[in-house]
Amino acid sequence: MTGTERPSLVEQCRDNGWRITGQRRVILDVIEKTDDHPDVEELHRRIRGIDPGVNIATVYRTLNKLADENLIERHMFDDGRLRYEPAPDAHHDHFIDVETGEVIEFVSEDIERMQDEIARKHGFEIVSHKLEIYVKRRP
Amino acid sequence: MTGTERPSLVEQCRDNGWRITGQRRVILDVIEKTDDHPDVEELHRRIRGIDPGVNIATVYRTLNKLADENLIERHMFDDGRLRYEPAPDAHHDHFIDVETGEVIEFVSEDIERMQDEIARKHGFEIVSHKLEIYVKRRP
DNA sequence: TTTGCAAGTGCGAATCATTTGCAACAAAGA
DNA sequence: TCTTTGTTGCAAATGATTCGCACTTGCAAA
User: Fold this and answer.
1) C21 C1' – A106 CA distance, angstroms?
2) Which terminal residue of chain B has fewer beta carbons within 10 Å of its beta carbon, N or C?
3) pLDDT band at A80, cuts 50/70/90?
4) Contact at 8 Å (CB) between B128 and B115?
5) Is domain B9-86 annotated with CATH 1.10.10.10?
6) CATH 3.30.1490.190 fits A93-135, yes or no
């Protein structure tokens, strides 16, 4: 048997007191199916594939609200646009393939631990962090 | 005695075939004196303090050219504007104090080493990387 | 089931940092 | 000094994101 399922985004939003509109249903649905790191334009493209009437301003507003409540994660890599992914179960960092633009997730307990240590040494407490490694495939 | 001095930015630019105009002399001078991570507006403010006639478009153009030739380093932290610092002698990463906006540099050989290792494990070669730790001061 | 109304939406205009086109200007080599 | 190009200032363009506002719609309470 599988572990406890996380409630759907729609349910989580309803719990947070959001009105579930037709547009939001579509937007949340698309996000839930996301297994990459699309930017707003790409998300809007996917959303329009289901309901062509959803305005991009609505997409922006919804994404901001979701990110504010930590229901999705927002990134900005070196191309300068915002990219989104569903809230991950566990923190991870990213490789970005500079040749293809592909984003690959990775986890390193060791690196996390060293960050804590060095922050502590400097008298800081970590609020969040971002590690992006720009790479190319080794021949 | 001190080690070999790095040639001034003006000299480096001249070596790269740039024309050394009055504006550039001022811009390069201000950058050379920089020991923080100012954004373009702040740099322009400092430059205007010396020569009020330097247009911000010129500042942008010069910064881009410098960054293209790796004579300065460009960052974009979570506030969404470009910030610059003189090309560092050695790679370092950044703490960003979320309460004050202050940027603090740090170096960790250990973290660098682990990044190499994990990249290798994934079949990648590192092109560059960026580690930003958003922190607040520990009480 | 209807209704009231605050929350949500579409649309176009506004914003903000950054870039660009172009005519005037000025380094630097001949 | 003259000539050739690279640079500059200015204003207009860009491109991603946000905002104002009139219209619409979920949904709680009647």
Assistant:
1) 45
2) N
3) confident
4) no
5) yes
6) yes
